[in-house]
Specification:
This protein has 267 residues and is of the alpha+beta class. The chain contains seven helices and 14 strands. The strands form three sheets. The chain has a six-stranded mixed sheet, with helices on one face. It has a six-stranded mixed sheet with strand order 5-6-7-8-12-9, with no helix packed on it. Helix 2 packs across helix 3. The longest helix has 16 residues. The relative contact order is 0.15.
Length: 267
């Protein structure tokens, strides 16, 4: 009896502390140009996570098919995955793209249908893509985002993020992706004043074209923003995938960004 009680107590602690293993990656032009070996490498990088947010799935030229190829490859690695791909973003002023979410069906349940941001789709060139997931009985809504490039001033669209929590007051929003803007920028101050926090501080995530001695990373672009009153975040990390390649040029055939990861749970 004592061993049974101990086991149940241990099970309760493990369940209570269970967090969603999340990965976000700007995969740079995920489409027909990605070779089978590149798709396999990406799948091996993703397979240890529960839910994945991908940015820069091309709107044409095999983008949706590349996501399907990726999920097929993941399904051959021991777990079953499902996925959702956004419609092309509605930008007419910049480069339209798709987003994608991938998740392990044994661990994560998709709640409802994902959607592209409706209200601010004119103000934000590549409007965010939302999906609500249920994990261990708790729900989180990931807001997948790829900002316009630095030279086009991404702060002009990031400034609208301060309005999104009020648009979805009953959801536990988490902003995740490539902001093309460092977390130190003042455009994030309204979120900070609302109590929001960023997962990464001074963490470069984009690849240089050439390493400078041992420094292969250029800019602090990718991040996760969350409200600690609603969400617990731990073990924020990055994956230096380029170390698996003989050259940075070869690594950049996979992507010009590194993945970011974190463990999340709703309070």
């Amino acid at each position: 009896m004592k061993s049974t009680i101990t086991f149940l107590f241990w099970l309760f602690i493990v369940t209570a502390n269970a967090q969603l293993k999340t990965l976000s990656w700007n995969v740079e032009n995920l489409g027909s140009s990605k070779t089978d070996s590149t798709i396999s490498f990406i799948a091996n990088t993703l397979k240890g996570y529960d839910v994945v947010a991908l940015q820069e799935v091309v709107a044409g030229d095999g983008g949706a098919q590349a996501v399907t190829r990726l999920v097929d490859e993941l399904n051959r690695k021991g777990a079953q995955w499902d996925y959702a791909i956004s419609n092309p973003t509605s930008s007419s002023a910049y480069k339209t793209e798709r987003y994608a979410f991938l998740w392990k069906t044994a661990e994560v349940k998709l709640v409802g249908k994902p959607w592209l941001e409706r209200k601010y789709h004119l103000e934000i060139d590549r409007e965010p893509y939302y999906a609500t997931f249920e994990y261990k009985g708790k729900r989180l809504t990931l807001v997948n985002f790829h900002a316009i490039t630095k030279r086009k001033q991404p702060e002009t669209e990031i400034k609208y993020f301060k309005f999104l929590p009020a648009e979805y007051p009953h959801l536990n929003l988490i902003f995740i992706g490539d902001f093309n803007c460092p977390q130190s920028h003042t455009v994030f101050n309204p979120l900070r004043k609302m109590g929001w926090q960023n997962a990464f501080e001074k963490q470069k995530t984009s690849l240089r074209k050439e390493c400078r001695e041992a420094d292969c990373l250029a800019s602090e672009f990718d991040n996760i923003w969350y409200d600690p009153k609603k969400v617990t975040l731990s073990n924020a990390n990055v994956i230096h995938f380029y170390n698996s390649f003989a050259s940075l040029k070869k690594a950049r055939e996979v992507s010009d960004h590194i993945p970011i990861t974190a463990e999340l749970t709703s309070k």
